[in-house]
Amino acid sequence: MIVRIMGEGQWMLADSHLVELNTLDDELLREMESGDEEGFRRTLSGLLDAVRRIGEPLPDDALEPSELILPAPDATLDEVREMLSDDGLIPG
After folding, report:
1. Residue 44 and residue 90: Cα distance in Å, rounded?
2. Going along the chain, which residue ranges are E strands?
3. Tens digit of each residue's pLDDT (9 = 90 or more) over 36-58
4. What pTM does this model have?
5. Strand order of the sheet with strand 9-12?
6. How many contiguous H segments (helices) and E segments (strands) does the chain have?
7. Of 78, 57, 61, which is closest to residue 5 (Cα–Cα)?
């Protein structure tokens, strides 16, 4: 699966990593719903770090369709709320 972090680029990740990413996504959703800005910042950073750690970066000139689009590291709580579906940022 190809994941884009807005403003940074794309990473190729094995589908087997969805469980780890979904755990962080669920936590992020809970923090957003409760208005926990500090927790939101921490978990968003952790989610993006996980993608960078477990994924293989695609070359800058590659423009593949992204299956997941994640917010930039400096995205606000309101900006991320606009990106959410009922399942959070990551379906499933």
Report:
1. 12
2. 2-5, 9-12, 56-57, 68-70
3. 999 999 999 999 999 999 999 99
4. 0.88
5. 56-57, 9-12, 2-5, 68-70
6. 3, 4
7. 57
